[in-house]
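Researcher: Sequence of Beta-lactamase-related domain-containing protein follows. Predict its structure.
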Amino acid sequence: MHQKRHHKKSNPLVPLTVVFILMILVGLEIYLLFFNNNTALLSQKHEKNSTVRTGQQTTKLTNDAQQVKNFNQEVQPTSNLAKQLNQKLEDGQFIGTALMIKNGQIILQKGFGYANFEKKQPNTYQSLFQIGSIQKSMTATLILQQVQSGKLSLDETLERFYPNIQDSQEITIRQLLSMCSGLYQKSKPETMMTDEAFLQYGISNAIMGTYGKFRYDATNYYLLVGILEQLTGTSYHTLFNQTFIQKLQLSHTCFYNDFLHSNERTFPYEKKEDNNYKTKVADKPILFNREIGTGSIGMTVGDLYLFFSHFLSGSMINKNTFDSFWTPKTLEKFAGGIYMYQDYIRAHGVEEGFETNSYISKDKQNAVILFTNQYPKNQSYTLLGKEVFDLLVT
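Model: Prediction complete. Tokens:
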């Protein structure tokens, strides 16, 4: 007798449930796949943008670093033009260090003669010279940065800072920068003092000549230094170090007291009886130290070019501020430590046996910088520098 089999009736919901679960899993997989792909794309895009930004920054840093590096080498003349200009300096019995740039390339950077004749130490591309009044262009830059930040106005008067100075209610910052205030110093200190004491001496001994008339006198820049210190609460020495030496990587730039102890310093000589090194000009620290903000800096030719390169590029002073001061009215006149021409700038300094001449095109592509530690009396290398610059840009 056969036993009767009983079949369990299947539940129709089971297959549907399985299908439903499978659909959820597939959908979840598709979602995750889509989400991950988009995340990856976004991540890649972000990385790409970050790389571009980083790359741009690196390129800029590399360019700045490379520019500094380029000046840390001697460049002998190899092109016909460089050889011609080198010969012109030799014919002019030039002693010092020269830098020449043509179309953005250094074609000559070398020394001529001796930095220390007694020790037969030659001038080189690393030699330090006193730049004299060219420092005024750096002080002017610091002032214009205050104008740019809105803390100062070019047409603001001296009365805000030094109300006791004669006609301070009429004298503007613009006039001080251009030495058109009429002020001059009736006497100069003859003994060593601190920087602050030198500065206060210069300011307290400022008297009025003819208001509004150009008169080349350091008093104008002593006052600008005092204004800087009032506005920032920082010493001029510190401001200079932070703004120029550190930010622009000017590793061959220093104040006078450091210059005296540098192995790369040059010694000035006076030419007599056709002897280029007849008389050694003695160091006179007081004459440099009292020139607060106006003439107490030692530099190499390369560092000076680096400063002016930033000065002209707008990285320190923006175009609006730059153009608000150097207007067509200031062309070929002293203003802000330089002489501005149509296509180039000129800067000049003379101090105790040192002379500096600088000619740089406004696009920074062409330059002639001559530093000398032999400043013959009644003679200057300014004309020689201009002749060389004219040949360079022709």
